[in-house]
Amino acid sequence: MQDAALRLETLLEQLLGAPLPVRLRAWDGSEAGPPGAPTLVVRNRRALRRLLWKPGELGLARAWVAGDLTVDGDLYAVLELISGLVWERGEDARGLGETLRDPEARAAVRGLVRMAWPPLPPAPPREEVRRRSHLHTKRTDRRAISHHYDVGNDFYEIVLGPSMVYSCAYWPTPDATLEDAQRDKLELIARKLDLKPGGRLLDVGCGWGSMAIHAAREHGVSVVGVTLSHEQAAYARKRVADEGLTDRVEIRVQDYRDVADGPYDAISSVGMAEHVGSERYLEYARTLFALLKPGGRLLNHQIGRRPRRDESAYEVDEFIDAYVFPDGELAPIGSTVTQLESAGFEVRDVESIREHYALTLRHWVANLEAGWPLAVRLTSPGRARVWRLYMAASALAFEHNGISVNQVLAVKTPGSGASGMPLRARTWG
Predict the structure, then answer these.
(1) Deepest in the core among 19, 28, 113, 396, taking most CB within 10 A?
(2) pTM of this structure
(3) What is 207-240 written as a DSSP string?
(4) Domain-located, residue 341
(5) How many domains, the chain?
(6) Do 176 and 90 fall within a single domain?
(7) Strand 222-227 vs strand 200-204: parallel, antiparallel, or unpaired?
(8) Which are the contacts of 1, defined by CB distance < 8 A and separation ≥ 6?
(9) 328: domain CATH number?
(10) Start and end of every Polyketide synthase-like methyltransferase domain (predicted)?
């Protein structure tokens, strides 16, 4: 009788119609696959049941988060090798229904069911959230933000390091420190917004207060930072007090739609607009436009995806939606620019810095791996595995141009047409 790994390899290759690019280690200790290749470890039969009941990304994610599936070796290498089978098959790839019209594929599924016996669907890991309606009401947005950001400030300190900035850094060189690159990103935003002493800045989605503190300390502005996370707000207020900036920085637990004390000279929105939702995006842009004084600037720093053939069809990344950013949505940069201009903004500069995000994520993964025992104690083994997979897969997505991140500088240009921008604007770096 064949051992489990060899039997599993044979059935998966029969089902997929392609050789497995990784080595397999099964629950009985047996191994099969290309010698020297990175190893995917199937720790129990429950992993197969998860994959059979939810073929594709979500089944793999559930098996990973539950600890039923793991990697021996370089996680990036395994993700690179299996991406073509899971994430990059494209719109022209055969769907499961078409695949199972093949008699050999049906036989492979029957064989996998026998290996996975008993064929009962395991409960999803407790870290999974129930799919919502993507209405992006104030209540659902608060709940989604809490799921992602109220994991614990101590956990985020491990991942993000001393800068406590949870967005793409701006790297002068690949071997710079994460802290230096994050400081350079904050300064880049401040220069693009042309912050000056005595001005007012609204920081939408202020996180742990890093942008607000930098703007007040280095550029002399008064800052209002808003977040929906109570844990972030408490942490940010303590940092502001420790810096002696309570007279210039106010941190609020407040929805951006409820800010009513404009006008502001500038608005920074860094890593927040991904939570807004496509149906609410024009409302978001109009709200920020109304909060700016004439000539005021908006810096919108946002992850974007590649355009689809059919933009009318709603699609969601099942793993991200279930475990990382509930109700999050990515849009192509063209859609973002169009919505900002529809709200009245004049878009003056668009800069893609996707390679910078890949570097940032690799540093966050390294931080998490270095602090793994403490990260697990602070959250849960499943939550730590979610973050490791999400950040490593995202790093590869940025490196391969699957997603990007863009800084859009927009101006509330007054009726006179005087934008206040210099003739040669790109003096910020």
Answers:
(1) 396
(2) 0.91
(3) TTSHHHHHHHHHH--EEEEEES-HHHHHHHHHHH
(4) yes
(5) 2
(6) no
(7) parallel
(8) none
(9) 3.40.50.150
(10) 155-410
Phi, psi of 403 (to 5 degrees): -135, 165
By the 8 A CB rule, do 157 and 232 touch?
no
Adjacency order of strands within the sheet including 31-32: 31-32, 23-25, 39-42, 69-72
Q: Tokens 């939570």, residue? A: 275
Assigned domain for 170 exists: yes
As given in the structure block, the two tokens for residue 219 are 């550029």
90-121: burial string, b at 16+ Cβ within 10 Å, e else = eeeeeeeeebeeeeebeebbebbeebbeeeee
**169 and 239 in one domain?**
yes
Whether residue 271 sits in one domain with residue 344: yes
Q: CB neighbours of 68 closer than 8 A, spacing ≥ 6?
A: 42, 43, 44, 46, 47, 50, 62
Separation CA 251–CA 99 (nearest Å): 54
The residue that leads in pLDDT, 266 or 318, is: 266
Contact by Cβ (8 Å): 222, 199:
yes
Tell the residue number behind the tokens 């990973």, with chain if given. 64
Domain of residue 385 covers 138-411
pLDDT in tens, 79-105: 999 887 765 444 444 444 555 567 888
Q: Are both 103 and 182 inside the same structural domain?
A: no
Which of 146-150, 203-207, 329-333, 399-403 has the lowest average pLDDT?
A: 146-150
d(CA 159, CA 26): 31
* pLDDT tens figures, 216-245: 999 999 999 999 999 999 999 999 999 999
Within this chain, do residues 53 and 180 fall inside the same structural domain, yes or no?
no
Residues 170 and 30 in one domain: no
Instruction: Give pLDDT, residue 83.
Output: 81
Pairwise CA distance, residues 298 & 317, whole Å: 29
Same domain, 235 and 362: yes
Average pLDDT over residues 350-371: 98
Neighbours of 302 (CB within 10 A): 21
Looking at the structure, do residues 102 and 17 belong to the same domain, yes or no?
A: yes
In a domain, 423, yes or no: no
Q: Residue 124 and residue 353: Cα distance in Å, rounded?
A: 36
